[in-house]
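Risk mitigation, structural track. In case the binding assays with thiamine diphosphate fail to produce interpretable data, a predicted complex structure has been prepared as a fallback.
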Amino acid sequence: MLKQIEGSRAVAAAVALCRPEVICAYPISPQTHIVEALGEAVKAGGLPHCEFINVESEFAAMSVAIGASAAGARAYTATASQGLLFMAEAVYNASGLGLPIVMTVANRAIGAPINIWNDHTDAMSQRDCGWIQLFAETNQEALDLHIQAFRLGEELSLPVMVCMDGFILTHAYERVDLPTQAQVDAWLPPFEPRQVLDPAEPVSIGAMVGPEAFMEVRYLAHAKQMRALELIPGWAEEFRRAFGRDTGGLTHTYRTEDAEVIVVALGSVLGTIKDTVDAMREGGTKIGVLGITCFRPWPSAAVRAALAGARRVVVLEKSLAVGLGGIVSSSVRISYPGSPAAVHTVIAGLGGRAITREALARVFAEAFAGTLPPLTFLDLDRALVERALAREREQRRSGPIAENILRDLGTVASRAG
Amino acid sequence: MPFQSVKFYQTGTFTVGNRLLAPQERSVQSNMRRTNSLNSGHRACQGCGEALGARYAIDAAMDATGNRLIAANATGCLEVFSTPYPETSWQIPWIHSLFGNAAAVATGIAAALRVKGRSDTRVIAQGGDGGTTDIGFGCLSGMFERNDDVLYVCYDNEAYMNTGVQRSSATPPAARTATTAAVGPEPGNVFGQGKDLPRIAMAHGIPYVATATVAELRDLEAKVCRAMEIRGARYIHVFVPCPLGWGHASEDTIRISRLAKETGLFPVFEAEHGEVTSVSKIRRKLPVEDYLRPQRRYAHLFGTPPRTEVVARIQAIADRNVKRYGLVDE
Ligand SMILES: Cc1ncc(C[n+]2csc(CCOP(=O)(O)OP(=O)(O)O)c2C)c(N)n1
Ligand code: SF4
Ligand SMILES: [Mg+2]
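Fallback model:
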C-alpha cells in the first residue's frame, strides 16, 4: 500500500509488521518518533502479542532486549548517538551471545560538542561490535531493511543494526510502499531460537571463556559474518521476488560501467551524489557511484568487483576517524584493486552540515583533474579554523573551543550549510 | 521468626535435624529431592557465603515454583566460580550478560515469558553487592519502578570480591579492602552516609523487600518462598560473609553471619509496599566487638593502641539499627 508518511512512522510500521514481541525504548533525538509510534501501536492494542517497555536508559534497553531474546522473544529497540554509546557494552554482549536483536540507529553526531544532527559517527563507533550493519538510502529502503533484518538476524543468530540518517530520513515525509501483513508473514517465519532459556531444557548462557577457547569463539563470530556475506545477496533477490523491490543486498552500483571515477558512500547522501553524477554525466564525465548497503560484514569482493575499472575512488564519509581520516575509506583501500593512493577520503556532513551538489561536483572534478588531496574536509571554514589555531598558539588558556568558534562566527541562526 | 515455632537454640545446637519440625516446616535443603540448582564442583573458596546463599535461595525458589525458574546473573564471584567454560554448576536455565544489567536482563526474560503466555515460569536476577548497589543500581531501580515481575537477590559480601576485594558502596566503615587500606590516621573505609539498599528498595514501594543471612536457612528459604507468592518487583538482600575478603576462618562463615545479626549490625526484616512487616528479634544482644574481632579486615581496630573510639562509632550504628527496627524486645 502506498502511503505518504514520515520515515520514522514507516519504520515503525515495518517493525510492527514483523510481529515483534518485546520492544524496549529510551528516547533520544532523532529516534523518538519511531518508538513513539510503536508504543502507541502496542497501547492501542494493535500489537496484542508485544510488550512495550519504557526503560531507564539505553544500557537497560539493550539489556532488556538481551533477556527477551535469550528467552526466545523477537526483540527490537532503537537509538542514536549518545544512546548507542551508552549501551555499547550491551551491544557487544548481544552479538557475543548470538542474539538476533534488531535495532534502528537514527544516525546522529556524537558530542562534545553536543549536536543532535546527522552524521555516521555513532554507527561507525560500533563497527567492530559483531552486529550486522545495514545502511538505508531512502525511507523505502529503511522500511524494507527492517523486514530483512529480522530474517537475516534470526537465520544467523546475529543482531542487526539498521542505520538510517537522522532527520534526513527519520523526519522526512515520503511516499513509501508498505507491505501487507500477509506478505511479511510469508517472508518472515516465526523466531526459532538456536538456544533458549527454558526450564524444560536448562542451559547456561554466557559462561566465562579463557584463552583456551576465546580465539575460537571470536573466529566463529567472524565466520558467521562471512556467512552473512554469502547469504545476503540471495535474500535480497528473494525479497525482490516477494515484494517487487530491489532493496538490501551488499552494495548497489549506479552508472559505474565505464566510470573512471567512482564515488563510494553510505546512506541518504547517495541521492545527492547520484544527482551530481547525473549532471556530470550529461557533460560527458565518466563518473559512477557505489553505495554500500551492508557495511558489516564488509563486502570486500563486491567492492573490489565494482571498483575494478575505476582510475580513482572518492569515498565520501559522514564520520571521522580522528587522527587518521576516513573509516570507510580504510576499508575501501584494502578492497580496491588499484593503488591505495588512488582512494581519496572526503569527510562531509559532520554534525548535520549540508552536503550540496555544488560542493560535491567540485571535489569530483578535482578527482578527475588529479588535484584532490588524500583527505578533504568538504566545505570546511578554513578561516574559522585558522583563527582558533592562532588563538591556541597565542594563549594557553584560550577557552573552550566550541564556544570560541561560535563567537567568531557571530550570531547566526543555526544553519545547515 | 514468625514461621517457625521451634527455637533450635533451645537444643544447644543449630544443626538438629528436622525431626523436631512438622514436614511443611522442614527446610528445602534437608529434602533429599532438593534440586541442587547450584551443584557441587564449582570453584568458590572454602566457606564462601555467597555460594551457600545462592544455593539456598535458588533451591528454595525452585521448590516454590515447581522447578519453573530462570535466573539472570551479574558478573562477579558467583558467576565466575559457577561457570568456568565449558563447565557449569547451574541445573537451571541461567544467563550471564554483564556486570551492571542483571535486573534489566531479567525484565526482558519476564517480558518474553509474558508474551508467550508462560507466566508460570518465574524469573530471578542475582548479583553481588557491587553489581547491585553500584554499577547495576540504575537497572535495578528501573526494574523496581516498573514493578517488573522479577525477584532480585543481592548477595552482599560488602566488597568487590571477584576483582580482589575492592571497596563497594556496601563496604562498611573502617573495613579494610584493597582500595581502603588499613594505613594512615583513619585506616580502612570511611564513615560515609552508607547506601542502605533494602531501604532504598522499600522507598520504591515495591511489594516485597527482605533481608536475610546465610546463618538462618529456614528464614532465608521462607523469604524466598514468600517472595515467590507475590507478583511484581521483589528484593532480597542476603548477608554472605567472604572468608577470603574479610579474613576470617572458612568454618566461621555461619558464626560471623549470626554475629552480624545478633549485634544489630545487619538488621533482618521483611517489608511490604514500603512498610516493615516483621523483624527477626535479637535474642541476646552482643557487642559489635564480638563480630569485628574474628575478621582481619578490622584487625587495625584492635592493635596497640586499640581504636576504641572507632569501635564505639560502629557500636552506635548497631544501636541505631536496634532502635530503628525494634530488634530487641524491651
Ligand atoms: C563494566 C564492568 N566493570 C568492571 C568489571 C570488573 N568486575 C567484575 S566482577 C567485579 C566485582 C564484583 O563484585 P560484586 O558485585 O560485589 O560481586 P562479588 O564478586 O563480590 O560476589 C568487578 C569489579 C566488569 N566485569 N564490568
Ligand atoms: S572470594 Fe569470597 S565471594 Fe568470592 S568465591 Fe571466595 S569466598 Fe566466595
Ligand atoms: Mg561483593
